[in-house]
Specification:
Phosphorylase Kinase, domain 1, 9 helices, 37% helix, alpha+beta, single chain
């Protein structure tokens, strides 16, 4: 089943079941995988857009209780109904966190950085969860690492996407970044989509009220967590992360930045292979050029140390 659209009757039945009048059901900004509705002021309804997204919602139903127990700030699940008795798809009802998402908030740069710093502290808490510490999440998939991006650089050259000088320059850049990569990468639970539209903030002050949309959660290298956030927000986020995890001694400074940059550069180049625009998508990486332009913008803005030493 593709492009599922819940009918008004379906929405009315779900709302009534949970004590909400259909007149209080409002369409919210959608995600890539789910239709989203506000049920009154206190509840959020999420229904998959297509059958291929159902597994992500099932995953969220497992992950959210576990990360809440770990102390991560995310809205609680009210109910997860996969019986399909109310709709042709499973649905999830969550407590609505106050505020709006960071992508819509239009905050000044300093306040945006304050939110990213708070998000970094939350991620430090999340990344304490390992497979041994959370055996109930054994069904969560493991990231395969994506392979060596230097092979991608070779392919881009052979297929005519970049010239030989660019190929050599990029390969040399990855060679230098690889010196910072751990030989034995730890696997922790990652959210998988820490982007502005998944960070909720209060309207009255730049305070993070919740992290939402856990459909991309996986066991992965924790550095991959920072690859869906614009690079302009990464220094503040890593500052918060180091505060929350107790890292950041002089010997370690540069390691996290290099690992994060490795993923941003890899994924920016990977987008060249699939340069198909997706109009209407809210994610900042949806336009094919966004990641490369993000790298250019970040390094042209005189970023703080140690970033300039990594180019």
């Amino acid at each position: 089943m593709d492009d599922y659209e819940p009918s008004r009757e379906t929405l009315a039945a779900i709302a009534t079941r949970h004590g909400v009048d259909i007149g209080e059901v409002r369409v919210a900004p959608p995600g890539g995988a789910n239709h989203v509705f506000h049920l009154g002021d206190d509840l959020v309804l999420r229904i998959p857009r297509a059958e291929r997204f159902v597994a992500d919602l099932v995953k969220e139903a497992m992950v959210i209780p576990a990360v809440r127990r770990a102390g991560v700030r995310t809205p609680d699940v009210v109910t997860f109904d996969d019986t399909r008795s109310m709709a042709d798809m499973p649905y999830m009802l969550l407590v609505r966190a106050p505020g709006t998402d960071l992508a819509q908030a239009r905050l000044p740069r300093a306040e945006v950085d304050a939110v990213f710093q708070q998000a970094g502290r939350e991620l430090a808490t999340l990344h304490r969860l390992s497979a041994s510490a959370a055996p109930g999440l054994s069904a969560v998939p493991e990231d395969d690492g994506g392979g060596d991006p230097r092979a991608l650089v070779d392919r881009l050259f052979v297929n005519g996407w970049i010239d030989i000088e660019a190929s050599r320059w990029l390969t040399d850049w990855f060679d230098r970044l690889s010196a910072y990569l751990p030989t034995d990468k730890p696997l922790v639970l990652v959210h998988g989509d820490i982007a502005p539209q998944n960070l909720l903030v209060s309207r009255s002050a730049p305070a993070l009220t919740g992290i939402v949309d856990w459909g991309d959660a996986q066991w992965a290298d924790p550095a991959i967590e920072f690859a869906k956030t614009p690079l302009t927000g990464i220094p503040a986020m890593l500052e918060g992360y180091r505060q929350g995890s107790g890292e950041g001694t002089p010997a370690e400074v540069g390691s996290w930045e290099a690992r994060v940059l490795w993923f941003h550069l890899t994924w920016a180049l990977g987008r060249l292979v699939h340069p198909v625009p997706t109009p209407g998508e809210r994610h900042w990486t949806a336009p094919p050029s966004s990641r490369l332009l993000g790298l250019l913008r970040f390094f042209a803005s005189t970023p703080p140390e140690p970033w300039t030493n990594l180019v």
